[in-house]
Amino acid sequence: MHWHLHSKSAAVLAVMITISGFVGIDAHAQQCGPEAPQEAEPLNDRMSDTRLLRRIVLGLTGTTPTLEQYEAMGAAATPEEREAILRSALEEALASPKFYERMLRFGHEWIAVGAYTTGAAGDAYQGDMSGHLFKCPADSLHPGAYYHVNEFGSGDPARQCKDQDADGNTAVPEVHSVEPWWAPGTRVEVLGKAGSNVTQVVDAKGQTLDCGIAGGGYYDPMLPAGCGCGPNLVWCAPLVGLNTKSNNDLRVQRRHPYEEPARLFAHLAWHDRPLSDLVLGNYSVGTNWLRALYVRFGRQMGSNALDANTTWWRPDADNAPRDPLHPAPNDPQAWREFVVEDLEPFHLALTDNRARSGSLDRTYRFDPRTTTEAPKGLPTAGVLTMIGAMSSFPRERVRAARFLEIFACQSFSPPPADVHFPPYEVDPATGGTCLHCHKTLDPAAISFKRWDFNPTPSYYVPWPFIPGVGRYRVTKDWLSGRYPYTGNAPGYRWKNAFLPNTVLTPVTPEQITANPEAVLLDTMPETYTLLGMPGDGTMGPLGFGKLLVRSGEFDRCAARKLYAMFIGRELNPATEKGFIDKLAREFVARDRKLRSFIRYLYEQPEMRRGL
Q: Is 259 helix (H, G, I), strand (E, B) or coil?
C-alpha cells in the first residue's frame, strides 16, 4: 500500500515539475540529449553505364561518345555486355590522337612554364641566335629571294633586291639556290654571300671571324658581314625580329620552346614512356624550329660538331618516334624525339652511344673546388634543362621554387606571425624571416646555377649560356665588379648573389681565389638534405631530378595530379596521405606509365560515382 502511494506521488511530482518549468539535471539530460540517429539510407551515387561512358570518353579525348557508342550501350542486354563496351571505349580513347591532344592541354596545365622571353625577346625577337634573313618584296627583281641583314655591314642589304650594291650602284648579286633547314624538300633563292660556303672572314682589324657565331643587333641578330649561312643555311633563320615576336604562332620559333615541356609530357603518354623521364630523361621532342634552337645554342657555346650534320632537319631521315598529329614523313612541324646531346653537345646524354635513357644510374660528378678544368657540360634532365623552361624562370632560386611546386607539389607561403627566426646576417637560408622558405629553396637552387644570360654577344637581349663551359670560361675579372663586368653582366650578379660560406654557395673565399668558377658549384653537398634525402653527387639539374624521384615526392605529386585530372577531385595531403601513398605505389608498380595508371584509376569504385 505504501509503495503504491509512493509511486503515485512520484508520478504526480514529475508532472508538476514538468509543468512548473523546474528542470533538474537528470530531467535536462533527458529532454535535451541527442535524439537517436535515424538510420541513413545507403547513398546510391553510382553512375549509369551511359554516364560512365561519357565520363571515360570526355575525360580522355575532350569529346563526347559517338552516336554509335551510345546506341551500342542502349542495346546491350547484360551487365557483361555493357562492361565490355566500356572497356572497349577506354582502349579506343587511349589509342586516339585526341588523347594526345588532351594530354598536351593537361601538360600545359601541370608544367606551367612562362613564355620564352628572357634571353630571347626585347623590342624584337632574337632568341634564335642566328643571322636573320629578310625577303625581297614581290615587286622587286628577285621576288621572294632571301638576303642576310648584315650582308654589307653598314650598307642597306635590301639593295640587292634591285641589283644594286651597298652604295646604290648597279651590281647584280650572287644568286644561290639552297635547300633550307626550315623547309626540307624545297629550294629557296639566297642573294649575296649568305648562300655561299664562306665560313670565315677577316674584319677591319685583321681578326679572323667564325661565320657560325652570331651577334645581336638592336632588332635582329646577324653574322659577320660577308659570311655564308652555313650548310643548308643552318647558321641563319628566315625571321624578322620585329615581325616574328609572336608567342602564339607555331609558324615562327618563339612559341616552340614554350611548347616543349607539355609536348614531352604528351609524347611520354602517347609512347608509353615513364613519366619520370620528365625530370630524368636525356631526350626531348622538337620540330625543326626547336631543334634549330638547340643547334644554334651549341654553336654559340663554341661547338661546331653539328656543322657537318645534314640530317637533323630532315624528318624523313630517321624513324624517331613522333606525335600522331604530323604523320607526313617530311613534315618539319612534327614533334620528333631526339637525344639532346645529338643536337647540342653541352647537354650531356651520359649513355653509351648517346642512347635514350631516363635511368637513375645516369650520373656526372664535377666539383670546381678541386679542379680548374671545365666540366664537359650540363647533364640533360628532361624539363629541368630545357632552354625555354630554364629561361622562363631566369634565376636559380626561382627555378628551384617553380620546379618544386610543379614536380613535388611543394608550396611556399609566408610563415605564421608568431614564429621567430634567428636574426638575418648574410645568408637568407640561416637567418631572418626568409629562412622559412630558403632553408628548402637554397639547397635546391644550387642545382640551377649554370644557366644565365650574357650581354657580350647581344647587348639589347642578353642570350642564354652555360657559364664555365665551352667558350665561356669564367675568370676573376668576371667577379671583379669592374667595367665591363658591371650592370647586367652575369658575373656582377654572381659577385653579389653567390656569397661564399652560404647555403647557396658552400665554398670558401680561398677556393674562389684559386678558381673563380668555384662560385658556380652546382652539386648539393653530401651534408645537405632535400625532401628528406641526401644527394648522390650528381651535378646540376639532373642531381635535383634524381632527388625528386628517389624521395618519392615526384610519384606522390604525379599521383595527385593524375587523380585530380581523371577522377575529378583534388586530394588533401593532410587528411588523405595514406591514400596518396597507395596511389603512388600503384603508379610506380606500373613503371610510371600513364596509360597503365589510367586503366588502374578507371577500375576504382570512385570512377563510377557521381551526383
A: helix
Please state the three-class secondary structure of 448-503 as a single string.
HCCCEEECCCCCCCCEEECCCECCECCCHHHHCCCCCCCCCCHHHHHHHHCCCCCC
Closest CA to 322 of 337, 311, 312, 309: 337
How do residues 38-74 score in pLDDT, each as one tens digit? 666 666 778 899 999 999 999 999 999 999 999 999 9
Q: At what angle do helices 435-445 and 396-408 cross, to 10 degrees?
A: 90
Query: DSSP code of 168?
Result: S
169 contact partners, CB below 8 Å, separation of at least 6: none
Measured CA to CA, the distance from residue 152 to residue 149 in angstroms comes to: 8
The answer to whether the beta carbons of residues 375 and 354 sit under 8 Å apart is: no
CA atoms of 225 and 322, how far apart (whole Å): 38
User: In which element (H, E) is residue 534 found?
Assistant: strand 533-534
pLDDT 10s digits, 289-330:
999 999 999 999 999 999 989 999 999 998 999 999 999 999
Residues forming beta bridges with residue 210, ordered by sequence position? 200
Interstrand relation of 283-286 and 347-348 (parallel, antiparallel or unpaired): unpaired
In whole angstroms, what is the distance from residue 325 CA to residue 150 CA? 38
Beta strands in 131-248 (DSSP E): 131-135, 146-148, 175-178, 188-191, 200-202, 208-210, 215-216, 221-222, 236-237
